[in-house]
Design brief:
- This protein is of the alpha+beta class and 491 residues long.
- The chain has three domains: 232 residues, no CATH class; 152 residues, no CATH class; 67 residues, Homeodomain-like (Arc Repressor Mutant, subunit A), CATH 1.10.10.
- The protein contains 21 helices and eight strands.
- The strands form three sheets. Strands 3-2-5-6 form a four-stranded mixed β-sheet, with helices on one face. Strands 1-4 form a two-stranded antiparallel sheet.
- Helix 6 packs across helix 8, helix 15 crosses helix 17 and helix 20 crosses helix 21.
Length: 491
């Protein structure tokens, strides 16, 4: 007889951890940067009439529903299912509930800005060009980075034009159109290096103001003939090489420092896309006595409280609970739902603020030398785990805080991700920052002889002499990360 197989059914118990709706709300708010948090708060104010803005404290917390019995009654109401929706409330009533008494409606500004790309297109349209030149110019404009500089070489751009645009342009044609684009505003646009960017601005200044042409000539010589010494701040060497008196050199140096190394950034928007202005989430100040202060940037986020009117209505319905009709019970459930949602949102916002402050303070403590001096080389190796352990938070929480958040310091605005970098352990047990090693590698390449650039083996030896004993393959990896080509292509 054929044998049949039997499938046994068994029961097992598993412990599964799920997030409550309140925890999910906290996580979502934690991920939002300052600008998006402001939008989220405004949206919540519109959606929930029980939530109001302003510093006035409501007496909602004094009602019986909001003290020790809150959790018990919440569980009872959750089992009832559907609630009334806001469709039953006239829109004008919602608007009235979302304004605190004595406040006027906030005006919402609209931006009418023109993108960087559109501005350059307008300037291009004013030039008398052939169809081929116009196509090349359009491609050059589209190849500029957010700083307004041209990071690709003309040979690569020529190949791309041939492949993607079907345009066969000679190097001379590309050079001619490039000089035309460099004549656009703002000055320094489409430069292929910082040196060329500064020189374009100086030449434009000399053409527009003959009164400073003699001084501009000195500035051009400083940038054109002594650029390496200028980047290394070897002022005595420059004065000796050009035969300049110190007073004249200081005047020229003062004018050079007024030039814009990022002409594209002055347009306010990135090429081809509308980029929001960066609003820092944290404000850090450093004082001479070594004190470092930290504050959240909450200027666009209003203070929140539960509507006093809603609290009074809920209290009234609760007192008349015994003689309620079906409509009254539904109204009470609606009020209760909105009150709970408002209190939960306020609690989530406060928890977000506390988590952000704890995380940022920990970063300051771990990277204190940088916040005191502003020197990037002082950044120590730091990963998410280091901050999580010191702040006593989960790594995923630190990851959410550091994503899309910025901090304003006396030295500029930085992304929180800027402060995280891996470490390198030497044979002697010393921990070095990979950022510091990459910076040293960049300086070596920038100072090398262009006729005889360093190989990876030579760079490895030079780094070891500077106190960075890294392997050759590590040097090659960092070189690639810095977009530095191999030695034969740097000649």
């Amino acid at each position: 007889m054929p044998q049949t197989s039997k499938q046994l059914q068994t029961q097992t118990q598993q412990q599964v951890q799920t997030l409550s709706p309140q925890q999910i709300l906290v996580v979502k708010l934690l991920e939002l940067p300052a600008v998006e948090l402001e939008d989220r708060v405004r949206a919540e104010l519109l959606e929930n009439p029980a939530l109001e803005e302003g510093g006035e404290e409501s007496n909602a917390e004094e009602t019986p529903e909001n003290n020790a019995s809150q959790e018990e009654e919440s569980a009872d109401y959750d089992a009832l299912g559907d609630y009334l929706t806001e469709d039953d409330i006239p829109p004008y009533k919602l608007q009235e509930n979302n304004r605190t008494r004595g406040q006027r409606a906030e005006e919402i500004p609209f931006s009418d800005a023109t993108s960087f790309y559109e501005t350059l297109q307008e300037q291009l349209g004013e030039r008398n060009l052939t169809e081929k030149q116009r196509t090349i110019a359009n491609y050059l404009i589209g190849s500029l980075d957010d700083d307004g500089l041209l990071r690709k070489n003309l040979e690569t751009l020529g190949d791309e034009l041939a492949i993607y645009g079907g345009i066969d342009a000679s190097p001379d044609e590309l050079e001619e159109v490039l000089h035309l684009v460099q004549d656009f505003d703002p000055p320094g646009l489409a430069a292929r290096s910082l040196q060329e960017c500064l020189l374009i601005q100086l030449r434009r200044r000399a053409d527009s103001d003959s009164g400073v042409s003699s001084l501009v000539g000195i500035e051009e010589r400083i940038i054109g003939e002594c650029y390496d010494d200028f980047t290394r701040k070897h002022w005595d060497r420059i004065m000796q090489k050009l035969g300049l008196p110190e007073e004249t050199f200081q005047r020229a140096l003062s004018e050079i420092t007024k030039l814009n190394p990022r002409p594209g950034a002055s347009m306010g928007e990135a090429i081809g896309r509308n980029m929001q202005q960066i609003v820092p989430d944290f404000l850090v100040e450093t004082f001479e006595d070594g004190t470092i202060t930290l504050a959240l940037n909450n200027r666009g986020v209003p203070q929140l409280h539960v509507s006093r009117h809603f609290a009074e209505l809920l209290d009234e319905h609760t007192r008349n609970k015994a003689n309620q009709s079906t409509e009254s019970r539904q109204a009470m459930l609606f009020l209760k739902q909105k009150m709970d949602a408002a209190q939960g949102f306020i609690s989530a916002v406060k928890q977000r603020q506390q988590t952000l402050l704890v995380t940022m303070q920990t970063i300051i403590d771990l990277q204190r030398p940088f916040f005191e001096e502003g020197d990037e080389s002082l950044l120590r190796p730091m990963v998410l785990k280091d901050v999580a352990e010191r702040a006593k938070l989960d790594i995923s929480t630190i990851s959410r805080v550091s994503n899309s958040k910025y901090v304003q310091t006396p030295y500029g605005i930085y992304s929180l991700k800027f402060f995280f970098n891996e470490g390198y352990i030497t044979d002697g047990g010393e921990e070095l920052s990979t950022r510091e090693i990459r910076q040293a590698l960049r300086e070596l390449v920038e100072g090398e002889d262009r006729q005889k650039p360093y190989t990876d083996d030579e760079l490895t030896g030079l780094l070891a002499a500077k106190g960075y004993p890294v392997a050759r393959r590590t040097v090659a990896k960092y070189r690639v990360q810095l977009n530095i080509p191999v030695a034969r292509l740097r000649k």
